[in-house]
Design a protein that fits this description.
GO terms for molecular function: metal ion binding; protein serine/threonine phosphatase activity. Its cofactor is Mg(2+); Mn(2+). The chain is of the alpha+beta class. It has a single domain, classed as PPM-type phosphatase domain (Phosphatase 2c, domain 1), CATH 3.60.40. The protein is built from 10 helices and 15 strands. A hairpin with a 2-residue loop joins strand 8 and strand 9. The radius of gyration is 20 Å and the shape is globular.
């Protein structure tokens, strides 16, 4: 079966949590694929007023997804725009920052550790041997470029989607690059808060062709079925173009929404889920479970859906449904 297993791996990783404003649940399952390449980040208390959730669907390997899960939310916090209250700009810059950080000696070492190519101890020793450039600069770089045997490393050929939701008070900011998706249920109606970045979309096709790429069989340069992603540096080699105009770009679409009492819950999930079910079908399924199961936990909902999705479609890939629920009636909260 190539990269597929003869039988799916149905063991699930699950997590849930809450604060005084929201509760969330996560469940992931490898399914039919030979390896698990998804990652996630859940920080209900990124700071005193902000929550951060993200799903990262890797392709060609797990390292870029794991890198984003480890560092993207940190970079959001460090942006000047974040301190100024501009969440959209802060997360947009952080997407591009991931590509910048994965280049060079330090980027190579971090990716090698995350990909289990070298252990953390060896990585620490290497970090002591090879020193950062520009230490005399007045401006401190929290990710200084290091001299070393991999200083010319241009970044990983593997990549990852990124779909991030940031909640501050009643404001929801969604940032997306790739075909993972964010959906909100409002009075039972599904509303997509992100767009799947497929090469056939006119705006994506125009950029790809202008940058010197081509589309064959729905894939960029005949290989990648995404028009936007973090990583995938082989598609970002044109030195005369800015990052947002490369064949494949990490530039996210930003969508800002004011939350209201009509909002039921929000879902973040990779394409393995959407290959099995439409946005409305998923919303209907979740509502059905909430209404029929006594005192349900969000964690249970995620696991139930993950199980059903794997049965319904033999070609589902990695599956990381990520479910955040807000302002449910008390009889649905399980409290």
């Amino acid at each position: 079966m190539g990269i597929y297993l003869s039988t799916p791996k149905t063991e699930k990783f699950s997590e849930d949590g809450e604060n005084d404003k929201l509760r969330f649940g996560l469940s992931s399952m490898q399914g039919w694929r030979a390896s698990m390449e998804d990652a996630h980040a859940a920080f209900p208390d990124l700071d005193n007023s902000t929550s951060f959730f993200g799903v990262y669907d890797g392709h060609g390997g797990k390292v870029v997804a794991k890198f984003c899960a480890k560092y993207l939310h940190q970079q959001v916090l460090k942006q000047e725009a974040y301190s100024a209250g501009d969440l959209g700009t802060s997360v947009q810059k952080s997407f591009f920052r991931m590509d910048e950080m994965m280049r060079g000696q330090r980027g190579w070492r971090e990716l090698a550790v995350l990909g289990d190519k070298i252990n953390k101890f060896t990585g620490m020793i290497e970090g002591l041997i090879w020193s950062p450039r520009g230490e005399a600069n007045d401006q401190i770089d929290d990710w200084a470029f290091e001299e070393g045997p991999h200083s010319d490393f241009s970044g990983p050929t593997s990549g990852s989607t990124a779909c991030v939701a940031i909640i501050r008070n009643n404001q929801l900011v969604v940032a997306n690059a790739g075909d993972s998706r964010c959906v909100i249920s409002r009075k039972g109606q599904a509303y997509n808060l992100s767009r799947d970045h497929k090469p056939e979309l006119e705006v994506e096709k125009e950029r790809i062709l202008k940058a010197g790429g081509f589309i064959h069989a729905g894939r960029v340069n005949g290989s990648l079925n995404l028009a936007r992603a973090i990583g995938d540096m082989e598609f970002k080699q044109n030195k005369y173009l800015p990052a947002e105009k490369q064949i494949v770009t990490a530039s996210p679409d930003i969508n800002t929404v004011e939350l209201c009492d009509d909002d039921d819950f929000m879902v973040l999930a990779c394409d393995g889920i959407w290959d099995c079910m439409s946005s409305q079908q998923l919303v209907d399924f979740i509502h059905e479970q909430l209404n029929s199961v006594s005192r349900p936990l969000i964690l249970v909902l995620c696991s139930i859906y993950c199980h059903h999705c794997n049965i319904w479609s033999g070609h589902c890939s990695w599956q990381t449904p990520y479910l955040w629920v807000l302002d449910l009636p008390d009889d649905h909260q399980g409290k």
